[in-house]
């Protein structure tokens, strides 16, 4: 790396909560090797909402999972704050994910035997950290879960279950919230409610959100959209609209 590139990366690490540099991810070996990411670099500003889009097989979910430390990289670096997570042991990486990151997935991943409140508080308890009551109340009331706290997942709608998952992810005030198709299992109304809260979390609490989605309407809630194709970022769209996202996707397909 040149001195200029090193200085640029140092500046990005200072100003951004997460930075990927020349990330390559390959699976298999020899004739069976498949490269999902081909040297992806991106910086994610603190307190901003970034959506990641691309056609099936573009590498978007692989990129998110590598950024979140859920998958390993073949080469390159990923910084969360001032920590290169690609250099951490498995134990230290697990601790970093638990203490500094939040996750929301398409499947809600709630424990069926626990109530909504117990599911929300679970991550903090696993890390021996108790969220202050005021923050808990803020999240619960913002997500409209006050009268559902004693219910188990089987007694909640899909939208309510995903709101519980979002509350759980935000309770520990993560540096980054990673969301992988968070509205994929929801109807349009429930999906819009979840996306609206993620948007408010960014605007009101300076939460950093990185979200993979295939839905232009979901991407339009973000501050910008990164488009991947064949394992590379091929376009960035600031201040996205539904029509703007559709236009980029059509150009990529044509």
From TrEMBL:
<keyword id="KW-0067">ATP-binding</keyword>
<dbReference type="GO" id="GO:0022857">
    <property type="term" value="F:transmembrane transporter activity"/>
</dbReference>
<dbReference type="GO" id="GO:0016887">
    <property type="term" value="F:ATP hydrolysis activity"/>
</dbReference>
<dbReference type="InterPro" id="IPR017871">
    <property type="entry name" value="ABC_transporter-like_CS"/>
</dbReference>
<keyword id="KW-0813">Transport</keyword>
<protein>
    <submittedName>
        <fullName>Putative ABC transport system ATP-binding protein</fullName>
    </submittedName>
</protein>
<dbReference type="InterPro" id="IPR003439">
    <property type="entry name" value="ABC_transporter-like_ATP-bd"/>
</dbReference>
<dbReference type="GO" id="GO:0005886">
    <property type="term" value="C:plasma membrane"/>
</dbReference>
<dbReference type="InterPro" id="IPR027417">
    <property type="entry name" value="P-loop_NTPase"/>
</dbReference>
<dbReference type="InterPro" id="IPR017911">
    <property type="entry name" value="MacB-like_ATP-bd"/>
</dbReference>
<dbReference type="GO" id="GO:0005524">
    <property type="term" value="F:ATP binding"/>
</dbReference>
<dbReference type="InterPro" id="IPR003593">
    <property type="entry name" value="AAA+_ATPase"/>
</dbReference>
<feature type="domain" description="ABC transporter">
    <location>
        <begin position="18"/>
        <end position="254"/>
    </location>
</feature>
<keyword id="KW-0547">Nucleotide-binding</keyword>
<dbReference type="GO" id="GO:0098796">
    <property type="term" value="C:membrane protein complex"/>
</dbReference>
<dbReference type="Pfam" id="PF00005">
    <property type="entry name" value="ABC_tran"/>
</dbReference>
<dbReference type="InterPro" id="IPR015854">
    <property type="entry name" value="ABC_transpr_LolD-like"/>
</dbReference>
């Amino acid at each position: 790396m040149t001195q200029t590139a090193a200085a640029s990366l140092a500046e990005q690490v200072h100003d951004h909560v997460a930075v990927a540099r020349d990330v390559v991810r390959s699976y298999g070996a020899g004739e069976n090797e498949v490269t999902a990411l081909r040297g992806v670099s991106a910086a994610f500003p603190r307190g901003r909402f970034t959506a990641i889009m691309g056609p099936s097989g573009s590498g978007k979910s692989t990129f998110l999972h590598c950024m979140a430390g859920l998958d390993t990289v073949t080469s390159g670096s990923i910084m969360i704050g001032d920590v290169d997570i690609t250099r951490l042991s498995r134990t230290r990486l697990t601790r970093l994910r638990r203490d500094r990151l939040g996750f929301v997935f398409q499947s809600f991943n709630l424990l069926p035997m626990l109530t909504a409140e117990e599911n929300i508080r679970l991550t903090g308890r696993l890390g021996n950290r108790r969220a202050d009551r005021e923050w808990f109340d803020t999240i619960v009331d913002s997500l409209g879960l006050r009268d559902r706290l004693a219910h188990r997942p089987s007694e909640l709608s899909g939208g309510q279950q995903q709101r519980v998952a979002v509350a759980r992810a935000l309770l520990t005030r993560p540096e980054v919230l990673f969301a992988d198709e968070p509205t994929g299992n929801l109807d349009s109304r429930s999906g819009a409610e979840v996306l609206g809260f993620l948007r408010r979390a960014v605007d009101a609490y300076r939460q950093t959100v990185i979200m993979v989605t295939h839905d232009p309407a979901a991407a339009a809630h973000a501050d910008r959209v990164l488009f991947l194709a064949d394992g590379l970022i091929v376009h960035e769209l600031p201040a996205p609209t539904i029509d703007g996202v559709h236009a980029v996707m059509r150009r990529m397909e044509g």
